[in-house]
């Protein structure tokens, strides 16, 4: 439709019809009971009266082409204006083919993986009639007590920007092999990833510098990549809930960033302005959210209930309402809904089979690049072809390993299945120990294990894989925890295996950094497996058997203890830094714990032996030599950091400025080159990129803690000569 046609459509709509375009509900609220519709929030509203069932603009989280087709047809028959519904869903890390959780994907430090997995998710979900995904979640996170870190790209602004933008490109740029567009809705604007205490839905109190430098760039990168929608967050910013936050939504998002797309509330968040204490009732809540610029109300009906009265009383101007409705109509138009409101014809059985196979192969390759090898003493890994290997722990043969937000799916290939398919059965010994319950269900720890049983079942094995972790249902939304340790019996199992003289290899399934210090000394090797999706067990077997070296690097710091949190690499300097060797109480440290984390951002081992050397800073580039003196072909991620010695505001001790995955063969030496651009020497302040001449440290290495360093004096003239990069 043309812009004129949209305007004339708007002109013929009644107020109630306009308000209906701003309402999003799950299918059962207008008569479609279906087990595909998993509620993702509290059920708080009465079903709409039959008379109102035509007044809805979009549908949340229904899945399957048959269901979307039926709902669409029913609605078009009801709606006098024949305006198609938008179907939106949480396609976070896959739809039919489930990929590693976003935090694991970020550990691959591969924008290509983010784009490829999003493209396949888009192709599969568009075929089911879904038009919009509530992804990427660009919330920066630095507190693993918060359950939704699994859905993020971790603690670093640059990595968050790169992965979020790549996901948007993947969702929105169809290819011949993978057709179908899925519009990206960036969330949760803003700073939902910084709840105080790591407690879900809690307030986020951040300085404007922290917002601008760390917490906002990810959303902006996703919008610059073309995302047409933003979801407002549940939390307060500067004591105002994002859903009613005019400075945030109108001031920053619309006016400063020039965003003209659709803003949607989070689930029931409009009504929850009452609980926040900023609206005395539903009518006031609707006024707050509409006047803040929230176009669509998700899963509460305050707009439809009170909108006409707000117009009559002057609490809402009709041009505001019209602007909101026009943005929704434009989004529907941009997705071609007026021409084709129904899902594409389904693939033939053979094409569907080939497509599923292709997607599974891609999911397996990507899943191989996400696990992080945290420890590998005495070359415990990889397993050798002639070894007899034990496998125990609650995740040994567990298939419920997809993690949160898996589009209604729960099962992937288990570790046991993956190993059994690639390793002689006669050399595997499975010592089952029952499954782990979830905290939500009262936390059934694993069954107590007798040493005698374990000795008997594992008597032929020197090496034992112990698959441990947290229940997948204890990650994601509504899953904050104060205790990040493995359950008591999982820790006891590891201690017992060590006491039995076994070579203990821990494989950790989790959606967040766990507190691994209590078991670290008992393990010869630790592989952080995350939740890797459909091909989980197959990918882990590839790594454990040495078919491919682990190559993941931590996108989020692992603390020694929960008491250190928040602990992340890009901390600001303090006036009393710890000076090596100086034992004074008057320094920024703890009496009972080092400041350093257990494993730093960017850390991850491979089966190779790689070093960097020869860092050189030249006018147009920065170079460092990578060599692999080991016997394994590996992929290393070379990281470039900078630090500014003095500036008008305190600066982080270091900041990631670029990174590159580099495949390197045994004995090979590679010169890795990064562009030397203005972006390396700037920081954001007041909406601009600021350069202040002075001394900079340029650092390069294979994690954020062990870096080569060169000093670079930067004058204004030197800065002006440098290439302008995408800042
Ligand atoms: C949830 C989440 C949000 C999700 C939405 C729809 O409460 O906060 O991320 O997209 O509801 O399911």
List the helices and strands and how they pair.
Elements: H1 3-11, H2 15-21, E1 23-25, E2 58-60, H3 65-78, E3 86-89, H4 102-106, H5 111-126, E4 132-133, H6 157-172, E5 183-189, H7 208-215, H8 217-224, E6 229-232, E7 236-237, E8 240-241, H9 246-256, E9 262-264, H10 273-276, H11 282-292, E10 297-298, H12 302-312, H13 318-334, H14 349-367, E11 372-376, E12 389-392, H15 415-422, E13 428-431, H16 451-457, E14 463-469, H17 488-499, E15 503-509, H18 517-520, E16 525-528, H19 536-544, E17 610-617, E18 621-628, E19 634-644, E20 655-664, E21 669-675, E22 682-685, E23 688-691, E24 694-701, E25 707-714, H20 716-721
Parallel strand pairs: 1-2, 1-10, 2-3, 3-4, 4-5, 5-6, 6-9, 12-13, 12-14, 14-15, 15-16
Antiparallel strand pairs: 7-8, 11-16, 17-18, 18-21, 19-20, 19-24, 22-23, 24-25
Q: Could you write a compact summary of the structure shown?
A:
The chain is an alpha/beta fold and 727 residues long. Strands 9-6-5-4-3-2-1-10 form an eight-stranded parallel sheet. The longest helix is centred in the middle third of the chain and has 19 residues, at 349-367.
What are the defining features of this structure?
727 residues; six-stranded mixed beta sheet; 18% strand; globular; 25 strands
| Main beta sheet | 8 strands, parallel
Annotation field: number of helices: 20
How much strand content do the residues show?
15-25%
- The percent of residues in helical segments reads 25-40%
Instruction: List the uncertain runs.
Output: none
Gyration radius, to the nearest Å?
Answer: 26 Å
Q: How does the overall form come out from the CA principal axes?
A: globular
Distance between the termini: 36 Å
Structural class: alpha/beta
Q: How confident is the prediction overall: mean pLDDT?
A: 95
Strand order in space, largest sheet: 9-6-5-4-3-2-1-10
The count of DSSP E runs of length 2 or more, i.e. the number of strands, is: 25
| Ligands and ions found | alpha-D-glucopyranose
């Amino acid at each position: 439709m043309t812009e004129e046609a949209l305007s004339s459509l708007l002109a013929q709509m009644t107020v109630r019809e306009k308000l209906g375009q701003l309402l999003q509900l799950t299918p059962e609220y207008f008569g479609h009971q279906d087990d595909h519709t998993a509620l993702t929030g509290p059920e708080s509203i009465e079903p709409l009266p039959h008379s109102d069932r035509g007044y809805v603009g979009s549908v949340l989280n229904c899945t399957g082409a048959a269901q979307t087709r039926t709902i669409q047809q029913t609605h078009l028959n009801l709606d006098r204006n024949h305006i198609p519904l938008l179907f939106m869903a949480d396609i976070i890390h896959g739809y039919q083919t489930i990929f590693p959780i976003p935090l694991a994907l970020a550990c691959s430090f591969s924008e290509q993986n983010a784009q490829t997995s999003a493209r396949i998710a888009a192709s599969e979900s568009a075929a089911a009639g879904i038009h919009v995904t509530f992804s990427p979640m660009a919330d920066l996170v630095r507190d693993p007590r918060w359950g939704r870190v699994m859905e993020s790209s971790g603690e670093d602004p640059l990595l968050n920007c790169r992965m979020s933008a790549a996901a948007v490109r993947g969702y929105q740029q169809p290819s011949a092999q993978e057709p179908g567009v899925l519009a990206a809705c960036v969330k949760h604007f803003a700073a939902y990833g910084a709840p105080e205490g790591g407690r879900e839905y809690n307030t986020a109190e951040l300085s404007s510098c922290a917002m601008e430098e760390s917490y906002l760039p990810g959303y902006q990168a996703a919008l610059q990549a073309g995302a047409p929608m933003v979801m407002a967050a549940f939390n307060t910013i500067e004591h105002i809930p994002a859903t009613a936050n005019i400075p945030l939504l109108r001031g920053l998002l619309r006016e400063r960033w020039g965003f003209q797309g659709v803003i949607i509330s989070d689930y029931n968040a409009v009504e929850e302005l009452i609980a926040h204490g900023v609206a005395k009732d539903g009518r006031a809540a609707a006024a707050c959210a509409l006047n803040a610029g929230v176009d669509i109300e998700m899963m509460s009906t305050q707009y439809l209930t009170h909108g006409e009265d707000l117009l009559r009383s002057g609490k809402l101007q009709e041009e505001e309402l019209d602007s909101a409705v026009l943005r929704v109509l434009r989004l529907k138009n941009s997705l071609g809904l007026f021409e084709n409101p129904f899902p594409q014809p389904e693939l033939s059985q053979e094409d569907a089979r080939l497509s599923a196979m292709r997607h599974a192969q891609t999911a397996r390759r990507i899943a191989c690049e996400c696990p992080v090898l945290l420890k590998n003493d005495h070359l415990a890994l990889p397993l050798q072809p002639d070894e007899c290997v034990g496998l125990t722990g609650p995740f040994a043969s567990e298939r419920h390993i997809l993690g949160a937000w898996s589009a209604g799916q729960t099962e992937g290939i288990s570790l046991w299945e993956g190993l059994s398919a690639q390793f002689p059965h006669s050399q595997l010994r499975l010592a089952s120990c029952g499954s782990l319950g979830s905290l939500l269900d009262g936390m059934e720890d694993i069954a107590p294990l007798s040493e005698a049983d374990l000795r008997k079942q594992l008597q032929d094995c020197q090496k034992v894989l112990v698959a441990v972790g947290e229940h997948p249902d204890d990650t994601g939304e509504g899953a904050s925890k104060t205790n990040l340790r493995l359950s008591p019996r999982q820790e006891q199992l590891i201690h017992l295996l060590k006491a039995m003289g076994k070579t203990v290899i821990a494989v950790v399934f989790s959606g967040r950094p766990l507190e691994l210090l209590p078991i670290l000394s008992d393990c010869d090797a630790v592989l952080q497996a995350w939740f890797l999706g459909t091909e989980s067990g197959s990918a882990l077997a590839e790594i454990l058997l040495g078919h491919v070296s682990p190559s993941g690097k931590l996108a989020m710091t692992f603390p020694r203890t929960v008491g250190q949190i928040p602990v992340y690499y890009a901390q600001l300097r303090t006036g009393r830094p710890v000076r090596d060797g100086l034992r004074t109480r008057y320094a920024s440290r703890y009496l009972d714990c080092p400041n350093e984390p257990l494993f730093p951002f960017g850390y991850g081992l491979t089966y190779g032996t790689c070093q960097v050397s020869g860092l050189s800073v030249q006018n147009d580039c920065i170079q460092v030599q990578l060599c692999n003196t080991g016997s394994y072909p590996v992929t290393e991620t070379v990281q470039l950091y900078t630090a500014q010695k003095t500036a008008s505001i305190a600066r982080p001790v270091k900041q990631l400025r670029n990174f590159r995955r580099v495949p390197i063969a045994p004995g090979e030496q590679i010169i890795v080159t990064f562009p030397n651009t203005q972006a390396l020497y700037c920081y954001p302040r007041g909406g601009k990129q600021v350069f202040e001449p002075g001394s900079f440290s340029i650092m390069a290495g294979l994690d954020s803690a062990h870096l080569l360093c060169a000093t670079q004096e930067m004058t204004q003239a030197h800065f002006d000569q440098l290439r302008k990069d995408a800042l």
